[in-house]
Amino acid sequence: MPVTTFTLPTLLTQADADAVMFELQDLPCISNAGVHLALQQAWAEHTRMMDPADMAAALAEAGHPPTHTETTD
Fold this sequence. Notes:
Strand content: 25-35%
Number of domains: 1
Largest sheet: 4 strands, antiparallel
């Protein structure tokens, strides 16, 4: 299953981390997700039916636009 990691410079507080987790968990085709506040990163394990660009757009709409996105298989 692919894992997409997002770098989020606006990820500064636990409230930000909670908002990002809520956003990722609310998307379809996400099987697991997490946030690393100190690294300002979030990641999501997802099916191939989920486009990482759609996840990035959802995060941006929630006020946390990614500056870098990387997907690994």
